[in-house]
Amino acid sequence: MTTHRARTSRDHQHMKNCAFCAIAVGEAPAVIIREWPEALAVRPRSGGVNNGHVFVLPRVHVADAGTDPEVTAAVMRRAAELMAEHPAANIVTSKGKAASQSVLHLHVHVVPRREDDGLPLPWTPQHTARATAARNGATK
User: Fold this and answer.
1) If we measure between CA atoms, which residue out of 80, 74, 72, 28 comes closest to residue 54?
2) Are 92 and 109 in contact (CB under 8 A)?
3) pTM score, two decimals?
């Protein structure tokens, strides 16, 4: 049995002002790559970080991946379907501003990858800096 938490008046206010909700109901323009009953895959308005970059978002307003596990699971399933079409790809989502979430509507980025594409994950610079520091510290 699928359960969804009750929507509050605060949720309805977010829905009213949510760009992704407007896309989901056809009130805002978007390049839709694929549609399913519960979700849709959209090309980022900026063009994305590479040619195949899309994001998958639910048709219902859910703030982030931690808000409604059932909705998140459905969106992740659809993102995985898209990911399967590529030999290499990342699936990325965020929860909260500290984790770089800029739109407070669940969305999962599917980013096709290739060797030496120069596209770091968000934590790659920090990881590289720590590895370099550890190597330098080990040689002293």
Assistant:
1) 80
2) yes
3) 0.78
In three-state form (DSSP H/G/I as H, E/B as E, the rest C), the secondary structure along the chain is CCCCCCCCHHHHHHHHHCHHHHHHCCCCCCEEEEECCCEEEEECCCCCCCCCCEEEEECCCCCCCCCCHHHHHHHHHHHHHHHCCCCCEEEECCCCHHHCCCCCCCCEEEEECCCCCCCCCCCHHHHHHHHHHHHHHHCC
CB 12: neighbour CB atoms within 10 A?
11
Does residue 44 have a pLDDT over 50? yes
Closest C-alpha among 30, 17, 32 to residue 63? 17
**How distant is the alpha carbon of residue 124 from its chain centre?**
18
CB of 31 within 8 A of CB of 42?
Answer: yes
The β-bridge relationship of strands 108-112 and 39-43 is unpaired
83, 117, 58, 4: CA torsion to nearest 10: 80
Query: Per-residue confidence at 65, pLDDT binned at 50, 70, 90?
Result: very high
